Automatic annotation (TrEMBL), chain A:
Keywords: Cell membrane, Membrane, Oxidoreductase, Transmembrane, Transmembrane helix. GO terms for cellular component: plasma membrane. This is Na(+)/H(+) antiporter subunit D. It is a multi-pass membrane protein. It is found in: Cell membrane; Membrane.
TrEMBL record, chain B:
This is Uncharacterized protein. It comes from the Bacteria. It comes from Thalassobaculum fulvum. Keywords: Membrane, Transmembrane, Transmembrane helix. The chain crosses the membrane at residues 21-43, 55-73.
Amino acid sequence: MTAIAELAMPLSPGLLVVLGGLLVPLLPVALARLYVLALPAAVLAYTLALPSGEHAAIAFMGLDLQLLRVDKLSTVFGSIFLIALFLGNLYAWHESDRMQRTAAQIYAGAAIGAAFVGDLVSLFVFWELTAIASVFLIWAAGTDRAFRAGMRYLVIQVGSGVILLAGVLFHVHGTGSLAFGHIGLDSPGGPLILIAFGIKCAFPLLHNWLQDAYPEATVTGTVVLSAFTTKLAVYALARSFAGTEMLIWIGATMTAFPIFYAVIENDLRRVLAYSLNNQLGFMVVGVGIGTEMALNGTAAHAFSHILYKALLFMAMGAVLFRTGTCKGSELGGLYKTMPWTTGFCIVGAASISAFPLFSGFISKSMILTAAGSEGHYITWGVLLFASAGVFHHSGIKVPFFAFFAHDSGKRPKEAPWNMLLAMAATAALCIGIGIWPDPLYAMLPFPVDFVPYTTGHVITQLQLLLFAALAFTFLMRTGLYPPELRSTNLDSDWIYRKVLPAIVRGIGRGIDAVWGSLTGIGLALVSVAIDGSARNFGPNGLVGRTVRVGNGVAWVTALLLVVLLVSYAAS
Amino acid sequence: MAQHSSPPPGETRRWLDEPRNVTKVVWTLVAVCALLFLGDLLYEKHPHFAVEYLFGFYAIYGFVGSVGLVLAAKWMRKILMRDEDYYDRDR
């Protein structure tokens, strides 16, 4: 045991967070609140001090496991995960639910652990742990909807892990290597591993678990959920599938189609889930292009995205917390009593829209520039359209319908101090990164040769965004803008929530009908046989009825006559 | 851009509660957009693609793209929209 403990040194930051998280249920709530702030802060300091290289190699049951690989890519993802955990815990300070607080630490620890592993088996273990730990954040909402959405989420997430394991088996069989490095589609297990990553990354048609489950989680749970699962998948893609051209098309599709849904979706947390999907598309395009600039862009965009997306979910969470709803059709005018939340939401909106001086601007532009300089004409056009589109729904629609628009008459209290503090810190980071990107650029996997703030770049970006705002205004003033309606919009989950159950029910009804008619025929035959027997052999039947003696003698005589004739003829 | 608000009685009206002021905000946006459109004169273009040479390309693309997005999404509602309890009804 000591031998294993020594071999596992230095400990993976992810394991530290998971083990630290296991202590949470043992602590009194007041202490746990402080503890979960100290934990990620201490582990972040520890992480940044780790020497780069490969550590903690363990031979376990004949497998060469590598629990800690420190390089720039793992450190940038590990660090932002820890920052997100800190901010999420601060946001959830008021929460006294031990289960949620524990689940959040273990979930984040698993994602951080996965970012630091160097072999595919350890990746699989952490991959599944993120799925199992995170579902409690959905179930904790306590509603029937949340329970069912959590079940669907769990099946899909665990399924992704099973597919990953199958792919890893093929990969190891074909290449003899367990290393979590570049895999590519040429490896025998490559396609399966790509599908497993793609499910967690919410590729088109594999995406709907995200929009289905995240908006059903608790106020604080969604903030935590938004940070880890999908960005872990982006990290895994960058590790194993950089330069896979198919990802450019997949990513471009991902940026574009969710924004149509976001425009007509009423639940504002679900709008944010669609825009999360759209932002992942930018990162996937960066992985697909695979140049140094593009991969830097992906890592930088993941970093800034985790912050502004958390900030937007925090603001909508505060609205849900205070008003009990997050539906655009029920909200409006909240800026009057929730001015701070409004302000922080606008900072998040400006960041996701990539306004100059906000974080999205300095990261998304790297991916667009990479797409442009590699000559991906159509992809570049789609990304530009998606950039205008994301401003439309996350930048304008979310703050507008929640805080402005028509006055709903709701006058909720401002968010609790801990939520405000968490939002303020996150907003400060969004602006800080936007104004001074160099520290982030220094953390990226490759040397950065990119200047975000050029006159041309600032002007073109402002043109794109403000004319998109003009379009919104034009559509609102002319009444062309579709109103917020209480509704459900069909997405790919329709297939497994309606069509497949209907097919199964149809098959069941078919079996029922065939069974019914078969047994009907059988019963009819039996009753015909019974009726026939009853007719012939019953008390009044031809054979069964009693006859008088005279008639009986006549019968016997007739029979004797027949026998006589037959034997005469035969002789 | 708040519109036709109905604040509870006794509450002081905010600046944005006046439709007049909302209109002011809209016209300010229009003015800023007009200036930005002319912003293309201020710098030398180093585009990746020929289409970027078009004067005000980003502005036009942003406006047309956004209007197209919203109108397409509005049309999608005809096919995709169901009642709020659509998935709960089978139980």
